[in-house]
Amino acid sequence: MIYLELFLVFFKLGAFTFGGGAAMMPFLEDEVVERGWLTLEQFIDFVAISESTPGPFAVNIATYVGVVKGGFFGSVCATLGLVLPSFVIILLIARFYNKFKSSKLVEGAMSGLKPVSIGLIAAAVVSIGQAVFFPSGFAWSEFISYNFITSLIIFIPMFILCLKKFHPILIVLMSGALGIGFGFLEKLFA
After folding, report:
1. Integer Cα distance of 44 and 133 in angstroms
2. What is the Cα–Cα distance from 86 to 81, expressed in whole angstroms?
3. Quick check: 19 pLDDT over 70?
4. Digit-coded pLDDT (tens) for 29-65
5. What does the alpha-carbon distance between residue 177 and residue 23 come to, in Å, rounded to a whole number?
6. Helix, strand, coil percent content, the chain, rounded in steps of 5
7. Which residues fall within 8 angstroms of residue 154, CB to CB, at 6 or more apart?
8. Dist. CA 92–CA 10, nearest whole Å
9. Average pLDDT, the chain
10. CA 97 distance to own-chain centroid
């Protein structure tokens, strides 16, 4: 039964979210955390892993959630459920593209989807940012916690490097190395 549920949940996500994996993040969080498949902490860890490993974010996280809930076959069901709607939609669009490419209705729909995608990405940033920086809520103690300070120490230079157009792979590698280093220091002095 979990296999069908994984397939249907990820099929729904694949069929009704636009704007890529980042725009899908709020819906993923709702579905996965609300169902108790992952805790919020596990979800955030999976987001970090999914963003740091090769391949599309949404496919990676579907595969990870599927493995956790149903092993290898669960990962196949979740991943297939996620990619199947996009595959079918792209086939249909390719078939009829020449007929509709200059349609005002299609242009209007695309114009409407752009700000929605940006809003969904912003919601994901706020939700994940709150869970990472303020897991216990907005309290003064959070601003002086080790996790908050080390997160800022990693985030600020990496953000600046992003603005300076550093290669994303280097930023991911440096962030991972800093995260491992700060995690090691925390364990060493705890």
Report:
1. 12
2. 10
3. no
4. 888 999 999 988 888 888 888 877 888 888 888 999 9
5. 27
6. 85, 0, 15
7. 175, 178, 179, 182
8. 20
9. 85
10. 29
In the chain, where are the structural domains located? 2-133, 135-190
- What is the 3-state secondary structure of 128-188? HHHHHHCCCCCCHHHHCCHHHHHHHHHHHHHHHHHHCCCCHHHHHHHHHHHHHHHHHHHHH
Predicted local distance difference test score (pLDDT) of residue 66: 95
Tokens matching residue 128: 């994940």
| Assigned token pair, 84 | 């199947």
Question: Which two tokens mark 119?
Answer: 């809003």
First-to-last C-alpha distance (Å) of the chain: 43
Sign of CA dihedral 43, 47, 48, 49: positive
**Do the beta carbons of residue 7 and residue 14 sit within 8 Å?**
no
Please name which of 11, 13, 9, 58 lies closest in space to residue 37, comparing C-alpha atoms.
9
pTM above 0.70, yes or no: no
